[in-house]
Design brief:
This protein is an all-alpha fold. The chain has 15 helices and no strands. The two termini are 23 Å apart.
């Protein structure tokens, strides 16, 4: 029997049924406007002229839709170069996180080193520190890497190395690995499999949902980030798409800038739609053990 906030007896009554559907409709409409409204404004604003997009009150639909705004944005802002840079940085951050964060989570979950719980607690404690507080020490580290004394400005490593130190992704992976029965690990050990072989042949194939979630988080974090790439990628040749659009926005019409923002958002939306099933299955798979 399924338990709900409203009993079936109340649903059969006229008043209860009316209140239920009214409340449900209001909630759906409000949340739709909150989430879809900005996207609708951005897409329609990219089709408007410079005067129309700035007028008050705004128009709900462009009076004279201009698809040329997209071609102007592509050429004037050199979006091909900016998108390639961002894709390159996102792909590198994805590879680094999948390899190193997965190894760290596997070690904490299955290998259980000495003081593993203490290390995990310290990593999770870093989630309580505001990101802005870490900007200065991270920047000082990037301009003079300890021991090696190397300047990483305008280097992809300036984006990749901070992205690897992601306590949240390590925690997600560890929780998923914890849900994998120990009997499977014991059987692999009895068959003579090494820890690395067990990770590659058993753990990773079973962990595709959570790896999909981590992949989405890794890619979108790099794609949407603005402040950190602006600090460590000062050269016009190494800018990300968000920094590049901001840099050109001063002397570019607003409708062209909005069109560039639409183009920049398309890859992440497509990436999300492809892996949307992995989000729910990955986030819930580690909630139950056994």
């Amino acid at each position: 029997m399924t338990r709900t906030l409203i009993s079936s007896a109340q649903m059969r009554r006229g008043r209860g049924k009316y209140m239920y559907w009214t409340l449900l409709t209001v909630v759906i409409v409000v949340f739709t406007l909150v989430f879809v409204g900005p996207l609708y404004w951005m897409v329609t604003g990219a089709l408007k002229s410079g005067q129309e997009i700035a007028q008050t009150p705004p128009t709900l639909w462009p009076e004279d839709p201009r698809l040329t705004n997209y071609t102007d944005a592509w050429h004037q802002l050199d979006l091909a170069k900016l998108l390639f840079n961002t894709f390159y940085y996102a792909a590198g951050a994805l590879v680094f996180q999948l390899v190193l964060d997965t190894a760290a989570a596997y070690a904490l979950s299955k290998l259980r080193p000495a003081f593993g719980n203490v290390i995990l607690a310290l990593m999770l404690a870093t989630l309580m520190i505001p990101a802005m507080v870490l900007i200065i020490p991270q920047y000082v580290t990037v301009i003079d890497l300890p021991i090696l004394h190397v300047n990483l400005l305008d280097s992809p490593l300036a984006l990749w190395l901070p992205a690897v130190a992601n306590a949240f992704n390590i925690f997600l992976l560890k929780r998923f690995f914890d849900s994998i029965p120990e009997e499977i690990m014991s059987a692999a050990i009895m068959d003579g499999a090494t820890p690395l072989r067990t990770l590659w042949s058993i753990i990773l194939p079973m962990s595709r949902p959570i790896l999909g979630v981590v992949s989405i988080f890794a890619v979108t974090a790099v794609w949407k980030d603005f402040l950190w790439p602006k600090l460590v990628m000062p050269s016009p040749e190494t800018r990300t798409v968000s920094v590049g659009i901001y840099a050109f926005s001063g002397g570019t019409p607003m409708n062209v800038v909005v069109a560039a923002a639409v183009i920049a958002a398309i890859p992440t939306i497509v990436f999300f739609l492809i892996f949307q099933k992995s989000i729910m299955s990955g986030l819930t798979a580690g909630s139950l053990k056994g």
